[in-house]
Amino acid sequence: MTKLKDVHTEHCCIDHGCKYGNENCTVTTGKIQQSYSCMDCEEELKLESNNELLKLIQQHTELLADSVARRRETSAGNKALHTKMLELLSDEDWEGVEGMLRDSWYQKPLDGVICCLNPSDMDVKVKFYNTWSGYEN
């Protein structure tokens, strides 16, 4: 596949089709490789990462809650956000937890929570960290 650029390489997707509905789209016909993932591809990846992170949280709720509680105690400005997350975890309100994961105000505080996880199995922390890193990007 050629590495040239045109309007289609910048806006169309091999998986999601031509943005312009053009049957001769250079990307969808395979003539030229798209320059980067389309918005739909990025949303699918973010949704996948979000689902993985939520599953990890459900499997290790106590671990995450412990880290959130510790961060709340040392936090100057994020006590309310951490308190809300603790309530959601305690109630097993997974829809609410998912909302907090998407909340731009909780992105940095949650980064600190994940960095401060204290699992007995370091593989769990690595899974959280890798999944969170994939979700952030």
What are the salient characteristics of this protein?
137 residues; mainly alpha; 2 domains; 63% helix; 0% strand; elongated
> What is the average of the pLDDT values?
86
Shape by Cα distribution: elongated
Count of strand segments: 0
Structural class: mainly alpha
Distance between the termini: 27 Å
Largest sheet: none
Strand percentage lies at under 5%
Query: Which assembly state applies to the chains in this document?
Result: single chain
Cα radius of gyration in angstroms: 20 Å
Number of helices: 7
Topology as a string of helices (H) and strands (E): HHHHHHH
Helix percentage range: 55-70%
Low-confidence stretches: none
Q: Tally the structural domains.
A: 2
Explain what you see:
This protein folds into two domains: 1-36, no CATH class; 42-136. The protein has 137 residues and is mainly alpha-helical. The longest helix is centred in the middle third of the chain and has 21 residues, at 39-59. Helix content is 63%, strand content 0%.
